[in-house]
Amino acid sequence: VCIYDITTQYVFSAELLAIFLFTVVAHLWSLQTSRKFIPSSVVRRSVRIAFRYHCAFWASFGLYVIVTFLPDEPDPGRPGLMDICVILAWRLLMLNGFFNFVAFRLHLRDAAAHPRSRLEQSVAFQERSEVRYVNDVDYRRWTAACDVQIGRIHGHNMMLLEKLGIINTFLAAEDDMEQQLLEQEAQRPRFTTEFRQRGESERV
Fold it and tell me: Membrane spanning segments where (predicted)?
């Protein structure tokens, strides 16, 4: 036999209200934290999934908590809007499992939509960033080391071309290319000067 106790109902509703306030604050904090990450990150996806379960919780318990703290009907013998809200609140309360199933179904749909891309985008979440200090770069020394490596590579290439017997052909082609570049470089200022002079004459 179920005994209706208004005090127990108030206590239960107060507990649900406290849980609601806690989940709202936690979700707002999660939204504020997730702004630091890209839209496809694990953090934002987790916040979106948790929000669905949050909606499922209040779709079933929200109206019940509201009805509990509302005053009763002035005429108990005559059904009114309050009685309809109470009946609807209890129906939604019994559908709590269904709402959670819908949230879980959407969770599985997102996880199975693009499994490979989800796996590639899944990274370990770490709030503290790892910082490594490096020494100052000596650009002169770095440039000299690069020149030494380039000269070594060029020397090995020359030895290989000499063994293949095509070094003279390669050097001739390299000289022709260098000559063409010099001719193009010499012609470029003349074209620029002619273009500027033509533009100035048109303005006049």
Answer: 12-31, 51-70, 90-108
